[in-house]
Design goal:
Blueprint (H helix, E strand, L loop, with lengths): L4 H28 L4 H4 L24 E5 L21 E7 L9 E10 L6 E10 L7 E5 H14 L8 E8 L5 E2 L2 E2 L10 E16 L10 E9 L4 H7 L4 E7 L3 E8 L2 E8 L10 E4 L7 E7 L6 E7 L10 E7 L4 E7 L5 E5 L12 E7 L8 E7 L8 E8 L10 E8 L10 E6 L28 E6 L6 E6 L3 E3 L3 E3 L6 E7 L1 E8 L9 E6 L4 E5 L6 E7 L2 E9 L2 E11 L5 E2 L7 E2 L4 E8 L11 E5 L2 E8 L6 E7 L4 E5 L6 E4 L4 E4 L6 E5 L10 E8 L8 H6 L5 E2 L5 E5 L4 E11 L5 E11 L7 E3 L4 H11 L1
Parallel strand pairs: 1-7, 2-9, 9-15, 16-22, 23-29, 30-36, 30-37, 38-44, 45-51
Antiparallel strand pairs: 1-9, 2-5, 3-4, 3-6, 6-8, 9-12, 10-11, 10-13, 13-14, 16-19, 17-18, 17-20, 20-21, 23-25, 24-26, 26-28, 27-29, 30-33, 31-32, 31-34, 34-35, 38-41, 39-40, 39-42, 42-43, 45-48, 46-47, 46-49, 49-50
């Protein structure tokens, strides 16, 4: 029987309907795929959802692994079906595997959300713990998209007043004790379409037995602190730098502290203390676990208590500063540790030596600061004394300390004013900043403090007004304002007679545009800067779609710079900002095509090269060293960099290594920089540093030394003050003649003066050579005489 025209029409319509239904089913399944063929063929109902709860850890969780989190492509990318529209999946799909890529189950994964950047700094916003069920197919489990969006909504509410573009990140950590966590960055709370793979690394555990000298376990509340550093470093260097390692704390219960997940191949330093800081044991250094699942036992004996600082504070009239809070700071050459203490009814105080004070061996001075009139701002009283020798234990009497108002400082100034727009209308909730105009030479210890006293407003009130107390300084204190979308015409000087100052802000123009980027490149890694000849006016990153918006641009002409880190990719010059313009239209910014502008370099650090997570590596464009950036190798000694395609060669500077030139190759390349020679300069025993002073040594290379610009940067990496062993470590790239710059610095007021510049011939023929040198005696005597 022949098919009529009407029948053919019905058959074609049925075929079209079948194809449309099949296409719709394919799209629905693509939203649920994890990237693996097995999951794509399994119905979605086979994956049980887990609620946002924090389950109790079980003995089964104490496996010999720690998480090193990484985002990986699906195991079978050929099975991945790309959706036709950019619709995100309904949840995260997460898989946990061991170091041999075998799926794991019956463990916990912690998920935390973070806010990065802006004036609020880095903040952890929220988090939750999920369980990988023992019956999870392919060890896959879900995190519902609603939980992700809820967490991000809370974060956005907290940072809604940020003046810079916020960046939200999500971090996955297994067992909540991950050694490393690679953060997966999300934009607009959209989960990635592929599976998040958490790859676990083998680990062991450390058990610490805390005992009294009689042998019984300690029962009082104690805290155990463990620092860890990779044992791949040379033994002597690892022992020296273990105090800089990763810190982990745990409580001591019934005399036992357990660190359940410790990465293999670590050098460990363990210390026990009480919560008041009075008790401090000797540091125990030991090798960490070597085999997966192994246990290392360390024994720590409770010893003597920390030394105690004691003294009495009085003002210039010899009146005790009784029952008042004051700041005590221990100052050394590189840092100062500060604590707020309370005097008793007689003006006396006691405080055990704390870690925040640093090492007693390097302590130079002790500074006291008290503000009369708090909470009503008033005079600032300061005193600084030389730090006496600090014994290992016992009481250190500092005597009576007289706190005075230093010359150059007086009763705090009362300053007030308001912030208005160009039409004179008040601007409420405008942010305020106060800062000192520092003199070229510090004239006393008070100049090391913040130049302000009392309570300072962070923003204007609803009428655009502010009231603040600031302290006078030799060159004054300035105040400026900030508000989203506005620029400040000029900051003002806080000085007597300016109680009604007026800061004028004008609404700036907005420049919008769009970047076309490669899909592999994260948009939030791109930086856009708009600048004129004097300043950078605005700086932001594009959103997930590449759209950008630069606000508060001043009238005039400027340049839009687009780069990744400090690697410029494109510059659009001559963008004109008309007077009183609300928006700027420039056809060159509507669609900026940067596809193919960068390419990926994959680097792996050789296993024999010293490496710690605290050391950074720099790279420079070999043809233009001004273009550079820095990065860290991850826990597996790997790094992935995006560098402009026109850069064929880079110079890599790794910690304590000589520059290494690399040429681009497709795929991974192993880098093995040569170790930089070390040189120690020490003071002979017969030379005595004048009391109250410190010596510093800096090194430079003469112009005719034959060094490249990168080699000059590496000179004297650790130069500075002589340590407790009366020596300083410097690094020079090769043998030759260098300049030794000798500096004398006062410990009391931090004044510093160049004593002399002495040419010095250095021969690096031996291993870690040591030079015994002193500054010229006549130059040292002249500096001491000048300072009295």
């Amino acid at each position: 029987m022949p098919i009529t025209a009407r029948g053919r029409f019905l058959l074609l319509g049925l075929l079209a309907l079948t194809l449309a239904l099949g296409y719709w089913l394919t799209q629905q399944r693509s939203l649920e795929t994890s990237g693996s063929r097995a999951l794509a063929e399994r119905p979605a109902e086979a994956l049980p959802q887990q609620p946002l709860t924090a389950p109790q850890a079980s003995d089964a969780d104490a496996r010999s692994i720690v998480a090193r989190v990484e985002t990986a492509a699906p195991a079978a990318p050929e099975a991945k079906v790309e959706p036709s529209a950019p619709t995100p999946p309904a949840e995260f799909l997460v898989q946990v595997v061991d170091h041999e890529d075998r799926p794991l189950r019956d463990l916990d994964v912690a998920v935390t959300f973070h806010y990065r950047g802006g004036f609020l700094g880095d903040m952890k916003m929220s988090g939750a713990t999920f369980r990988v069920p023992s019956d999870a197919p392919d060890a896959l489990f879900r995190i519902p998209r609603g939980d992700v969006e809820k967490a991000f909504a809370q974060a956005q509410e907290v940072v809604s007043k940020a003046t810079e573009k916020p960046s939200f990140e999500i971090a996955f950590e297994c067992q909540r004790t991950a050694v490393e966590a690679t953060r997966h960055v999300l934009a607009n709370a959209e989960p990635p379409a592929e599976t998040i793979r958490l790859k676990l690394a083998p680990a062991g555990r450390v058990r610490v037995e805390v005992r009294h000298s009689a042998g019984e376990h300690a029962q009082q509340p104690l805290l155990a602190m463990m620092r860890s550093i990779p044992a791949t470093l040379p033994r002597e260097e690892a022992l020296r730098r273990v105090a800089e390692g990763k810190i982990t704390h745990t409580a001591v219960q019934d005399g036992v502290a357990l660190f359940p997940y410790v990465s293999l191949g670590q050098l460990l330093q363990i210390e026990i203390s009480d919560r008041d800081g009075l008790l401090r044991t000797e540091k125990v250094v030991l090798e960490g676990p070597r085999e997966p699942g192994s246990e290392v036992v360390a024994e720590v004996l409770l010893g003597q208590t920390n030394p105690v600082l004691a003294g009495r504070l009085v003002d210039a009239a010899n009146v005790p500063i009784a029952q008042r809070h004051f700041d005590l700071a221990v100052v050394n050459a590189n840092r100062s540790g500060r604590m707020t203490l309370l005097t008793d009814a007689e003006g006396s105080f006691e405080r055990a030596w704390m870690d925040v004070f640093g090492s007693p061996e390097t302590a130079e001075a002790i500074e006291f600061r008290w503000e009369r009139g708090v909470p009503t701002p008033g005079e600032v009283h300061i005193a600084r004394i030389l730090c006496p020798p600090i014994p290992a234990t016992g009481r250190v009497e500092l005597g009576t300390i007289v706190l005075r108002v230093p010359s150059g400082s007086s009763q705090a100034l009362l300053v007030s004013g308001r912030v208005v727009d160009g039409a004179g209308q008040p601007l409420p909730r405008a942010g305020l900043s106060f800062y000192a105009i520092w003199p070229l030479v510090r004239q006393g210890p008070w100049e090391e403090h913040a130049p302000l006293t009392g309570e300072l407003p962070e923003q204007t009130d609803e009428q655009g007004r502010f009231v603040a107390y600031v302290r006078e300084l030799p060159r004054g204190v300035r105040v400026d304002a900030r508000l989203e979308g506005y620029y400040l015409q000029s900051s003002l000087l806080c000085e007597p007679g300016r109680e009604n100052m007026e800061l004028v802000m004008r609404r700036g123009a907005v420049l919008r545009g769009k970047l076309l980027l490669d899909p592999e490149l994260r948009p939030d890694a791109i930086t856009l800067r708009f600048s004129d000849t004097k300043r950078v006016q605005a700086q932001r990153s594009p959103d997930a779609e590449g759209n950008f918006e630069l606000r508060a641009l001043r009238p005039g002409s400027g340049t839009l710079h687009i780069g990744l880190g400090n690697w410029p990719a494109k510059a659009i010059e001559g963008i004109s900002i008309p007077e009183d313009a609300a928006e700027v239209e420039d056809a060159r910014c509507t669609s900026i095509d940067l596809r193919g502008a960068w390419r990926r370099w994959q680097l792996e650090l050789d296993s024999g090269t010293p490496f710690t997570r605290r050391s950074s590596t720099s790279i420079f464009d070999a043809a233009n060293p001004e273009h550079s950036t820095w990065f860290d190798f991850d826990a597996s000694r790997q790094a992935e960099l995006w560098i402009p395609v026109h850069v064929e060669e880079i110079d890599l500077l790794h910690y304590e290594c000589l520059p290494l030139r690399l040429r681009y190759i497709a795929g991974k390349q192993v880098v093995k920089p040569e170790r930089e020679p070390a040189l120690f300069v020490e003071l002979p025993p017969s030379f005595q540093i004048p009391e109250g002073y410190a010596l510093e040594l800096h090194v430079s290379a003469p112009r005719d030394a034959g060094l490249s610009s990168l080699e000059r940067q590496r000179i004297a990496y650790d130069q500075g003050a002589f340590d407790a062993r009366r020596r300083v470590e410097i690094r020079v790239p090769k043998s030759g003649t260098y300049l030794f710059h000798w500096y004398l610095r006062s410990k009391l007021d931090n004044r510093q003066e160049l004593i002399a510049e002495v040419p010095e011939a250095i021969d690096l023929g031996g291993a870690a050579p040591t030079l015994s040198r002193t500054p010229p005696a006549d130059a040292l005597a002249r500096s001491l005489a000048k300072w009295g």
